[in-house]
Amino acid sequence: MNTPVISLEDFSFRFHLRENWALKNINLQISKGDFVVITGSSGSGKSTLCYSILGLVPNFYAGELKGRITIENQDTSSQSIFSVSELIGYIPQRVESSLITPYVLTELAFPLEYHDYEESIMHERIKNVSKQLKLESLLPRNPQKTSEGEKQKIAIGCALIRNPNIILADEPLANLDRKNRIVIKSIFQKLKEEGKTIIIASHEYEQYFSLASKIVNLEQGTIVEEITPANKSHLDTSELRKIWIDKRDSLKRKAPKKPGRILLSLKEIIFSSSDSFELSNISLTARSSEIIGIIGDNGSGKTTLLKIIGGILKLKQGTLEIDNKDSKDLSWQERSKNLGIVFQNPELQFFEETVKDEIALTKRNVEDDIVYSDITNLLKESGLEKHEENNPHSLSHGEKRRLAFLASIFHDPEIIMLDEITNGLDNSNKSWIKDKLLDLKQREKVIIVISHDWEWLEGIVDRVLYLEDGKIKSEMDEKQFISFRYEQSNHFENKENEVEM
Fold this sequence. Notes:
Helix content: 25-40%
Structural class: alpha/beta
Radius of gyration: 23 Å
């Protein structure tokens, strides 16, 4: 029997000032060359388990721990974070905070410089990783000014650049379009063939069925089952998917037959940024009781368009009207009252010290009347009631996304815009978000949803805009989008099969 590369023995951890244990009596053995997927619902402890293996618990995240973790027979409690980082290439879930230099080139160089690599080796590693991840054109750019999917690839490059023997990744496919998912999965396959030990925390465990040697199901901080290739077939992904895809005919609530009133109008919008990206001649009319999906590859301009509507970026040319008023004439209070936005990284929009105050924030700024029992009901409905008095930044990634959604709708805006709202959510919470959006549609709201999750979009959208290189390449109604999705799914399935061969 192989000696475990990583071993967790009766390991438990509780964050400082928290009553409940985030991890409880974890026993897990990971051998050299294993490909282990850690799955579980939002808030089950997946990211905390990653932090623990990395040595960030309790060296960075304070709290109480029991048991022990060993990596290559060394107890992590006696090792520094630096020592552990030499052994592991880590891909975090929240990549923005890990990108700290002004250029993608220097971002890739930083892990090598930090570990004192020779200059000639650094140049060769950067060249190889840039080619592998198709980052060459991004090297002179500021990583914070790239798209979220591009940031994700940069973070993956930083984790792989030292060629570590252990790779630990927290939702590494998040924010990636289908083409880039295939690229990353092919890299994981190659690393597996090279004998690397790979640990991935993900809701989307079915994405790794062909690669995984073991799937570990974590719930409420406890391992409830370990599934090996011999018995993982009982994890029926088609059944899980039915939670939020099937019954779409009964779930989808039809809009009124007569056209709704125009709540949002963009006419020949042009925007250009300092890094030469441009949105060109974007025109869009959105009516009440309408859900519009926006899709496109990483870097196509989806988030830029959302920021323009939200007033974060200024137009170079064109007109933007919100409820028949030119956006230039609206005060920030008027714009805030009309708009509810969830950004791709929700924690950047948190300002209050408690979850309940975060939900109330926008409504407090646009009007005085706040009924806190309404907030309590929303929290119960979303499964966040136990966090009512907690700091928003202490929540898991999926919980933060749900909180940001509640904060975006509590002041009852006419227009709701969501950027990758399902990222980090388990299937149950995806289904809950879907139901809430259909309810909002019935209340004559305009909902704009940016998403790479096309299967989830299929159950709610009335029409879809496909962006490519800053332009609207096509506009599809619901039936056209379904046909397009199946056509693309077959195309990418063939690409994945080519990779596996």
